[in-house]
Amino acid sequence: MASYDLTRRIAPHLDRHLVFPLLEFLQERQFYGDDEILKAKIELLSKTNMVDYAMDIHKSLYHTEDVPQDMVDRRVEVVGRLKSLEESAAPLISFLQNASLVQELRPDKQYNLQMLNDRFQIGPDQIEALYQYAKFQFECGNYSGAADYLYQYRALCTNNERSLSALWGKLAAEILMQNWDVALEELNRLKEIIDSKNFVSPLSQLQNRIWLMHWSLFIFFNHENGRNGIIDLFFQDRYMNAIQTNAHHLLRYVATAVVVNKRRRNMLKELIKVIQQEQHSYKDPITEFLECLYVNYDFDGAQRKLRECEDVILNDPFLGKRVEDSSFTTVPLRDEFLENARLFIFETYCRIHQCIDIGMLAEKLDMSYDEAERWIVNLVRNAKLDAKIDSKSGTVIMGPNHLNVYEQIMESTKQLSVRTYMLAKNVSESAAQTAR
Ligand SMILES: *[C@@H]1O[C@H](CO)[C@@H](O)[C@H](O)[C@H]1NC(C)=O
Ligand SMILES: *[C@@H]1O[C@H](CO)[C@@H](O)[C@H](O)[C@H]1NC(C)=O
Ligand SMILES: *[C@@H]1O[C@H](CO)[C@@H](O)[C@H](O)[C@H]1NC(C)=O
Predict the structure, then answer these.
(1) Pocket (CB within 6 angstroms of ligand 2)
(2) Which UniProt keywords apply (predicted)?
(3) What is the CA(422)–ligand 3 centre distance, in A?
(4) Domain spans of the chain, in order of start
């Protein structure tokens, strides 16, 4: 399973602070040895200002109360630098903390700069100090402080490059605070700048798009409208191009989003095309599942892949998020993926066959016979399919209009709840097994 873990491929495209949540997830899943994760954390922390955190990890990793001298030295350095940055930024910060003065600011950047300069002797140096201070706070792990100051800095900044960098910092801070709505706004703001005609260079544009898509995974798999958002973004030509140029592994996420998003089923064809084009550059059980089903019509292969898909989702930091219920833990995305994937298999099978053996279908859907029969009965009833179930012979017979089954299912899946309690129960059992 470790071969499906994308953390190593994703991390280089993230701010190092954003890698922590991924490591936390892997640690919780006990995917790698605890020591390995702790060492990776210390390595990451060594380039931030979170020295106290690094010391704590060192202590628990080596079961000691002592910390190495270089950590102690680093702490002294960090505290000293924080103090001096605080002093440099103080004039502007005390201005910004005074509500009655802030009210005098206008939506006119030039006016504000002039006013700050004339009345408070706050010039480019003090504004630069605010940026440095905000950045330093971010490195210390004070994301809320950093977000506020970076926001204020951008309102006064006249350097495009710096302003862009502040916006990336603000985005990272909002993600780390899990403010998904604000993070989404910042993401869109960044996208607009990156896509603008006068952006630095095409190469840098490509790189920025790739970063943006990686950072967006946090938002899209947490924000309530994320499953549409990721499809809207990743399928834009320039972004899909970037994926196909230098970020093939992102196909996992866009594929998953398409599978679970019933309303965007129309993207399936485009997705399959890309998966096929990139089959030599990237594959995992999720892309292979779709390939088996829609390119090769290989139902046995699809069924085998579906089992692997479940493991991939459970072990992916973006997809495998657990939700604690009163009685058991579920992984909502896994449940939805399996539900929809089975629907895909069923749809495709129906399109090819007139008469379907329930036992055979149960096997292909990886369900028990009874479960599959109940599932199909519900499906036929709720989707008003033109199909009859013959319990005696254990078959489903598609009516003459069965070629429309695909559309019919699409129509009615909104109110269709295929997720029976039975399935939920099984799912929690298998989750318990995986956790063992
Ligand atoms: C805000 O600035 C005004 C004008 O300089 C000053 O009179 C006032 O005391 C300040 N308020 C606070 C809370 O510092
Ligand atoms: C975070 O930064 C803000 C703004 O500088 C500051 O007021 C706050 O005390 C900082 N929090 C911590 C925990 O250092
Ligand atoms: C679901 O659970 C039932 C009862 O425990 C069992 O008979 C069936 O085989 C399970 N199905 C799957 C797909 O695990």
Answers:
(1) 137, 142, 145
(2) Cytoplasm, Initiation factor, Protein biosynthesis
(3) 8
(4) 197-352
Q: Which two tokens stand for residue 349?
A: 């099978």
Ligand 3: which of 371, 375, 430 to mutate, judged by most atoms within 8 Å of the beta carbon? 371
Test site for ligand 2: of 78, 142, 176, most ligand atoms within 8 A of the Cβ: 142
Q: Do residues 158 and 113 make contact, with C-beta atoms less than 8 angstroms apart? A: yes
Burial 385-395 (b: 16+ CB within 10 A, else e): bbbebeeeebb
**pLDDT classification of 350: cutoffs 50, 70, 90:** confident
- Model pLDDT for residues 260-291, shown as the tens digit of each residue: 998 898 999 999 999 999 999 999 999 999 99
**84 C-beta closer than 6 A to ligand 3:** no
Distance in angstroms (rounded) separating the CA atoms of residues 226 and 187: 12
Secondary structure (3-state) at 328: coil
pLDDT at residue 427 tops 60: no
Taking only the tens place, the pLDDT of each residue in 40-50 is 999 999 888 99
- Give yes or no for a contact between 351 and 406, defined as CB atoms under 8 angstroms apart: yes
The label of the residue with tokens 């499809």 reads: 231
Residues in the chain: 436
